[in-house]
Specification:
With 213 residues, the protein is α/β, with parallel strands linked by helices. It is 27% helix and 29% strand.
């Protein structure tokens, strides 16, 4: 029956979620339900029902305004990572106070529009030495020794080019929310995409918050 579902669904999601969670879910959905066409748009900006052009949206924290049916999708962790060569050539990091001798790789402060991501001030005054609106650019910059990156653990953990830094001391927990526009509720193709995202998020929950040990 799923192969008979047809329609085009536009999903808006933050880049890291789109890359690691949404893309595998949507690719599998296309395999089982080829009648469902998907359009994946990356954005980290706060969402509003007044904004046009999407059926489903993943946001960090709840969306702004009304007109959307929102639900908790998955919790995830942001932790510190650095390249092995960087750690070998810079002052050692054994406690949080040592971070003051290092610069941060994170979002651009002046362009940060999601309050849940305003985390740099909580790191003891670390200065953002490499800022980017792209989460994947942050990962690559950290791999190349641009500083200590505050990265999505579901992308950075297990990367041989990255080493966890103070994972027990610095462990920010945020929440992805999934919202459906009022006009899109009840559409079978939208429901199929929603179910695929929920299933993939549930299957990857141990990667979204990896163990620290």
């Amino acid at each position: 029956a799923s192969s008979e579902v047809r329609g085009t669904v536009r999903l808006v999601a933050p880049e890291a979620f789109a890359y690691a969670i949404a893309t595998p879910a949507l690719a599998e959905l296309r395999r089982t339900s080829p009648g469902v066409a998907v359009e994946l748009v990356t954005s980290t900006r706060p969402l509003s029902a007044r904004g046009a052009g999407f059926d489903l949206a993943v946001s960090v924290g709840p969306p702004a305004g009304s007109g959307m049916q929102s639900e908790a999708l998955a919790a995830y962790a942001l932790r510190l990572y650095a390249a092995p060569d960087y750690l070998a050539t810079h002052p050692p990091i054994e406690r949080v106070d040592d971070l003051l001798l290092h610069e941060l790789v994170f979002y651009v402060d002046a362009l940060l529009t999601v309050r849940e991501l305003d985390l740099a001030p909580l790191l003891g005054g670390m200065r953002v030495g490499f800022g980017s609106t792209s989460a994947l650019a942050q990962v690559e910059a950290t791999r190349r020794g641009a500083g200590v990156g505050l990265l999505h653990s579901f992308i950075a953990e297990g990367d041989p080019a990255l080493v966890p830094v103070l994972p027990s001391e610095v462990d920010f927990r945020l929440q992805f929310a999934l919202s459906t526009r009022r006009e899109s509720r009840g559409i079978a193709a939208v429901a199929a995409v929603r179910e695929a995202l929920i299933a993939q998020s549930h299957a990857r929950r141990d990667q979204l918050i990896p163990p620290t040990g």
